[in-house]
Amino acid sequence: MDIIYARGEATAAEVQEALEDPPSYSAVRALLRILEEKGALKHREEGVRYIYSPTEAREKVSRSALRKVLHTFFEGSLANAVAALVDARDGKISPDELKRLEVVIKQARKP
Asked: What total number of domains does the chain contain?
């Protein structure tokens, strides 16, 4: 999905070429087909090639996926998820990231 979002659209061959240590062409095609069946991708035909593109904006999809991760792994708790992310970084957060988090928290506190 990252490759298709970055390019806007791509064929299976283009996706395969862009992957580091890529799986077989057949495996890439199978994955694209599954993503299409799940509604994440659509395709148009150009000759014998299928050109895939996302069905929704990356931001909308990423928010939906994040909600699912929060629900599945963190009992819906944003605080638990953030704590796990901070722990995974051994508590090391850059000054820029801390400033960004402070802004987000201040905005969330506003009525």
From this structure: 2
